[in-house]
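Each record in this resource describes a single protein on a pair of labelled lines. The shape at a given residue is found from the number at the same position. The record below illustrates this layout:

***
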Amino acid sequence: MRIAHFCDSHPGRSDGVATSVAATVSLLRAAGHDVQVYQPAPLLRGRDEPCGVRSLPVPMRNIRVGVPHFSGMRPVPHIVHVHTPGPVGIGGLRYARAHDLPVVMTWHTDLLAYSAHFMEIQFGAAHAAQRLALGWTVRDYLRLARSGAERRAQLLRLGQEFMDRTSVVIAPSAKTAAGLAEFERLPPVWTVPTSIQLDECPLGRAELRRSLRIPETAPVVLAVGRATKEKDPALLLASFARLLRQLPNARLVMVGVKQNRINVLRVARQMGVAHALRLVRPVPHNRMAAYYRMADVLAFASTTDTQGLVMIEAEAAGLPVVLADAALAERPGGASGRLATAPDADSFGAGLGRVLTDPALHREVAEAGRAAADAYSAEHYLGHLMAAYQFAERAHGAARASVGAARAARTAG
């Protein structure tokens, strides 16, 4: 099968979308499928890369804005898989409509939640409405600038246009599938969590701890990902402050912190935890296994994620997970649930403390996570994904036949 993937996260970006797309493409190619991946590439080199989309970097942000042009794609794919609603993803939707192709869309990001933190979502929504020729009025565009119910309603209206152009929407978690109920009309929704493979890393636990200036016997709380506001680093730091009162020798390692470092350090000093905090910039994915082995528990404070790939990775590495989002407690494959707490510092900090001070609970949570990761293999994920693609092809063909029959009936009448 020929599949064209469209994603606005550039290759190597430290976010779940880019990681998920890379894992998915690798599995599809290993299974013998012809896969094209359209992602932002440098402006001057984008045209020279087979599927690179020329793009411009956004100052002070690890984001590139693509300038897509897909009219000459050869050969034409069987399926268009859209991962993001930015310029590249919108280009994929337009290409699919121009060539009458089925669209599968993965709803990776809770854009309604993120819109409160990133003004570029409003700009992106306006661009999408213009590129999709939705006929919005000036008043429609102005609603995007108003926080609250008006903006939410306008974003839902735009999201409905995405849904109406899609044969199958993939939700990476049950939480995401439930959230899609806000839309008035939905294509078939398939819940298909991503399966992530961790590379082996020769870096040992003791060596990594020494490089981070952490004693071998200190309990280590690990957090992985951006430290921007939507990930709630304030909750993480406040919870760790509570934990330090129980375990004064504990350490918090935050991996992937590039933006917002100054603010994180300021809040850490205010809470009295700066001495126990280690900030690590994004590291190559093939080194992450060493960080999971080095730690004693993964703290997942975000309540805006749709899947939480780092939890899947941690569980595969045998690291217990405590999260502050009960909606993500369900593990892939329907296995037993994760240890979740209320999203407040006392509850989350107490949950981390329980895992770190109760060896039996620590072992139980770690074993349940590893068993769930083993049960939901890459083969399971690939099988579900291919079934979704095949369903989308059949659904698109049936819809096309229905439209043709209706036209024929009107002509005959």
User: Anything to note?
Assistant: The two ends are 40 Å apart (CA to CA). The CA atoms of residues 160 and 183 lie 6 Å apart.
